[in-house]
Design a protein that fits this description.
This protein starts with a strand and ends with a strand. The chain has helices spanning 10-21, 33-40, 51-60, 70-74, 97-109, 126-137, 158-163, 175-185, 197-228, 232-240, 261-274, 280-292, 295-304, 330-340, 353-360, 370-374, 387-390, 394-399, 415-418; strands spanning 2-6, 25-29, 64-67, 79-82, 114-118, 144-148, 168-171, 192-195, 311-315, 344-348, 365-366, 379-382, 405-408, 424-427, 434-436. It folds into three domains: 2-195, NAD(P)-binding Rossmann-like Domain (Rossmann fold); 203-291, N-(1-d-carboxylethyl)-l-norvaline Dehydrogenase, domain 2 (Orthogonal Bundle), CATH 1.10.1040.10; 293-436, Rossmann fold, CATH 3.40.50.720. The strands form three sheets. A seven-stranded mixed beta sheet has the order 11-10-9-12-13-14-15. It has a six-stranded parallel beta sheet with strand order 3-2-1-4-5-6, with helices on both faces. The chain contains 19 helices and 15 strands. A hairpin with a 6-residue loop joins strand 14 (424-427) and strand 15 (434-436). It has 439 residues and is of the alpha/beta class.
């Protein structure tokens, strides 16, 4: 098929690359000329494992193209995918202005019948809103149908998630449009669910809200485990073996972040509030997550009493490994709390430092290695579970520190590994702390 993708952000670029990989001819549109030029040279604006290689492969095969021209992109496209951002507004609602603009751009340049696929995460009823804009502004005689096709990509594994999806949701009131989009995805050979438009919109929010709630639940259980002397990893393993619960999203830590869970949970809360519904469980999910981000700082205060003049290292700034995304990253709260309490903060991340500088600013010092961050530190805070961090030699690391104290927000190390250190104080999440003194 000939497909146009409007937007070359995380979702749009991943989608366009993967659709070209399964044989479609894809053209991606972005109004940023510099960005388009870099994409044409094979450089991805986002960090995503495997993306640039597929980008180059499919451009070389002439299945993947980039342009700033809506006219060129829509010229022969049977399906136009909208994948623009819906950022969170101050009241928690989704900002739909980029979607509205995308609809107006399509209406202004579309000269033939087409199916418009809305892949952006949107509140229930948004597809109807966009269809209304399209119908009111399209050229006379041009027929359009709209399909809701929410994305379920995890940053750091977007290519795998697209090519090996648990399910693809296609929502429309037009059977022919649904079948056409289903046909587009058939080469992936994954389960496809056909629903109404509003159900498809709701599936995305309900899925992310449930997963966010599951994370907040296990984090609360972790806090209970610390109080009663249980081990959260053993508890989670026992829970996860129950097929009704499942093992995924039972890793205790310092809260969820990123571009989806925080935004989608708050957008759903805004929607239900507009219908006069109180979603108490979801309100508590948000509250628990915000508190969990402070757990490491609370542990540090309990250990040191006061943090004024202390030097702390933060290992990992991105909200999760294998991405450079800083949106709603726990490191933001931790760095802010530490500096506000008078501590000096030195931070390292393999790929997210430049983005971190834009968000956190110059209130902390950024360095180029784990070793440089930990040198002469009073304590290390492990915030993102990068492979590089999980493979740290703890004995060597603590030997360079002023005090061999580690606050592990991601439970990166096994007890046997910790106990190889001659001297260490190790404070994890939901597990007993370990103190080894060099006699």
């Amino acid at each position: 098929m000939k497909i146009a993708v409007l937007g070359t952000g995380y979702v749009g670029l991943s989608t366009g690359v993967c659709l070209s990989e399964i044989g479609h001819e894809v053209i991606c549109i972005d109004i940023d000329e510099d960005k388009v030029n870099r994409l044409r040279q094979g450089f991805s604006p986002i960090y995503e494992p495997g993306l640039e290689q597929l980008l180059m492969n499919n451009m070389n095969a002439e299945r993947l193209h980039f342009t700033t021209s809506h006219k060129d992109a829509f010229g022969k496209s049977e399906i136009i995918i909208i994948a623009v951002g819906t950022p969170q507004q101050e009241d928690g609602s989704a900002d739909l202005s980029y979607l509205d603009k995308a609809a107006l751009d399509i209406a202004a340049h579309l000269m033939h019948d087409a199916i418009i696929v809305l892949k952006s995460t949107v509140p229930v009823g948004t597809n109807e809103r966009i269809k209304k804009i399209l119908l009111e502004n399209c050229r006379e005689g041009v027929k359009i149908e709209i399909v809701s096709n929410p994305e379920f990509l995890r940053q750091g594994s977007a290519i795998f998630d697209t090519m090996n999806a648990d399910r693809i949701v296609i929502g429309s009131e037009c059977k022919e449009a649904s079948e056409k989009v289903r046909e587009m995805y058939l080469p992936l050979n994954v389960p496809i669910l056909l629903t109404s438009t509003r159900s498809a919109e709701m599936i995305k929010y309900a899925s992310n809200a449930f997963l966010a709630t599951k994370i907040s639940f296990i984090n609360e259980i972790a806090n209970v485990c610390e109080a009663v002397g249980a081990n959260i990893e053993e508890v989670a393993a026992g829970m996860g073996k129950d097929k009704r619960i499942g093992e995924a999203f039972l890793q205790a830590g310092i809260g969820y972040g990123g571009s989806c869970f925080p935004k989608d949970v708050k957008a759903l809360l805004h929607t239900v509030k507009s219908f006069g519904i109180d979603f108490f469980m979801l309100q508590e999910t948000v509250s628990i997550n915000e508190h969990q981000r402070e757990r490491l700082v609370i542990k540090a205060l309990n250990r040191f009493g006061q943090l004024q003049g202390k030097r702390f290292a933060i290992l990992g700034l991105a909200f999760k490994p294998d991405t450079d995304d800083m949106r709603e990253a726990p490191s933001i709260n931790i760095a802010s709390s530490l500096t506000s309490l008078g501590a000096e903060v030195v931070a390292y991340d393999p790929v997210a430092i430049e983005n971190a500088k834009k968000v956190i600013g110059d209130s902390i010092l950024y360095v180029n290695s784990v070793e440089e961050a930990a040198k002469d530190a009073d304590a290390v805070f492990i915030v993102t579970e990068w492979k590089e961090v999980k493979q740290i030699n703890l004995s060597k690391l603590t030997a360079t520190m002023k005090q061999p104290i580690i606050f592990d927000g991601r439970n990166c190390f096994e007890e046997d590994n910790i106990r190889t250190c001659p001297t260490i104080e190790y404070y994890p999440i939901g597990k007993p702390f370990i103190i080894i003194k060099n006699s």
